[in-house]
Amino acid sequence: MNKAGVFAYNKFMTTLAQFIQHKRDAIGLSPKGLAKECNLPLNLIEDIESGKELFLPVTIRQNLAKVLKCDPKEIKALEKDFTNYTVSQEIIDSLKELILNGAGGLKCPKCGAPLITRIAKLYDLEDNLMLHPKAHCSKCSFHITE
Predict the structure, then answer these.
(1) Distance of alpha carbon 49 from alpha carbon 54, whole angstroms
(2) What is the mean pLDDT of the chain?
(3) CA-based R_g, the chain, Å
(4) CATH number for the 3-76 domain, one of 1.20.1560.10, 1.10.460.10, 3.90.960.10, 1.10.260.40?
(5) Which of 2, 54, 68, 110 could disulfide-pair with 80, CB 3.0 to 4.6 Å?
(6) Structure pTM?
(7) Hey, is 27 helix, strand or coil?
(8) Dihedral, 48, 51, 53, 56 alpha carbons, nearest 10
(9) How far is CA 48 from CA 43, 78, 113, 121, 123, in A?
(10) Model confidence over 31-65: pLDDT tens digits?
(11) In sequence order, which ranges of 1-146 are alpha helices (DSSP H)?
(12) Whether 10 contacts 71, CB under 8 Å
């Protein structure tokens, strides 16, 4: 399919989940059948089709495209790209404070997925305890390391 065809088709499939479901249905496979044909875990297919998985590694995209009889670019066009999203320092500072205060259930400011948080306990040269909030997203590349 040419590039214009990819985008013309994709404008009707607004999400990666919808696209994968539609293509899977078109070739007559169940989610379990697609997982088997792609040699992927069923829970990954379920996560993609439920909208929990928003971007895919190249090998998974290629496996899906081969079985779904489409171009990997069609799948890539519907994935979320979080690499260009910037998060302000104010938001990062706010998250750090929430982590230090024991807040739970924090969400990633880039993609909204759950943040995995912890507090690193370090000691300075004078043996004073220093607490450093750390966090990383369960889905995208967002992280707080300092």
Answers:
(1) 10
(2) 83
(3) 20
(4) 1.10.260.40
(5) 54
(6) 0.54
(7) coil
(8) 60
(9) 9, 12, 14, 37, 43
(10) 999 999 999 999 999 989 888 777 788 889 999 99
(11) 3-10, 16-26, 31-38, 42-49, 58-68, 72-76, 89-100
(12) no
| 131 SS3 class | strand
- Helix then strand then coil, in percent of the chain rounded to 5, is 45, 15, 40
Note whether 123 and 129 are within 8 A (CB): yes
pLDDT digits (tens, 9 = 90+) for 95-112: 999 999 988 889 988 888
* Residue 115 near residue 137, CB atoms below 8 Å: yes
Secondary structure of residue 75 in the 3-state scheme = helix
Ordered by start, the domain boundaries in the chain are 3-76, 89-144
* 120, amino acid identity: A
